[in-house]
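Researcher: Next entry in the queue.
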Amino acid sequence: MRALLVEGGKTKTLSMLVDDEGNLLGYSIGGSSGWTTVGFDKAFSNLSSSIMSAIRKAGLTTRDIDVAILGLPDMDTENAKMYFAGRFKEWGVFRVEPLIIPDFVTAYYAVTLGDPGVAVIAGTGSIAYGRNSRRVDARAGGWGWFGDDEGSAIWIAMRAIDASGRFFDGRGPYTLIAQKILDFFKVKDPLQLIDVVYSLIKEDIGELGKLAVLVDEAAEEGDQLATEILRGGGRELALMAKAVYEKLRVNNEEFIVGGVGSVFSSRTLRESFMDNVRNYIPSARLVEPLVRYMPVKGLVAILVEKTSLPRSYVDYIVKNIREVIQLHE
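Model: Structure for this entry, 329 residues:
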C-alpha cells in the first residue's frame, strides 16, 4: 500500500508518500494551502504543486497511490469543501478519490488517536475541536483573523503591532517588540509599517504571523508586555478547550486535552496554556503540545483507522517522518 498524506497549513503544505511498512518514500514542502490567506486558486496551486513534487521525489506516479488523505485548513464551510473536492475531480490525476479532512480534525487525531478528547490548534490561525465516546463532536474558535483567532500567530502579531504603535506614539510603555518589528521589516520610520502591514494583509496575511516569533524572543529577554501577550494567548486557547469540553463532557469519561501547532513552541504561551487547562478542566489528561512535524501523527492515525494497520504503526512512521525531514532541513 502506498499512501499520500498531506498536512496543509496557512503557512506551508507538507506532502508525504508512505508505505505500509512505515517507510517515508518522498516528501515536499510547499506554500500555503489556506484559501483565507492566499485565495482559492493560489491555495490549490500550492497544494497540487506540493503533492506532485512529493510523488516525483518518491519515484512514483499518481496512479500508484492507493490512499490519499488530505488535512486542509479553512474547511469550515460547505462552499470551501465543495471547491476543493471539485478541483480535485477536475484535476483527475488520482485513481482513488482523495479524502479531504479539516485540519482541526487531523489535529484531534494527533492528540487523541481517535479517543475522547479535544485538540487546540494554534498556528497562523486557531481553533479547538473534540469528540466524546458517543462520537458527538464540537468546536470553538476558528472565526478567522478578522474574528481575532485568539492565541494564534496572527493574534499575537496584531497585539505586537498595537503595542509598538502605542510606544511610538507615547501612549504606551517601552517594549522590545517595537524595535524588533522595525528590524524585521528593515524600516527606520515607524510610519512605514502602515504600508508594510497593509501590503501583507492584501497579499498574504499569514506572513504577519511571523511576528509572533519576535514576541517570544522579547519575552525570553524579559520584556513584560511580550510576556503578557503570550500568557494571554495561552489563556485564550485554554478557554477554547474548556468551551469544547463543556459541550462534550460525559460523566466518568477520561478526556484527553492537548495543543497542536507552531505557536506552542513558545515556552511562555505553552506553560500558560497548560496551567489554565489544569485550572479549567482538572480531570483532563493533559498531553504535551505537538509542534514542528508532530501534527502529521493525526494523518497517520486516520490512515490506521481507515486500513488494517495496527496502532503501533503511528508512532513508528511518525518517528521516521521526523528523522528524515529534519535530516534534510
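Model: The chain has two domains: 2-97+292-327, 108-291.
Researcher: Noted, moving on.
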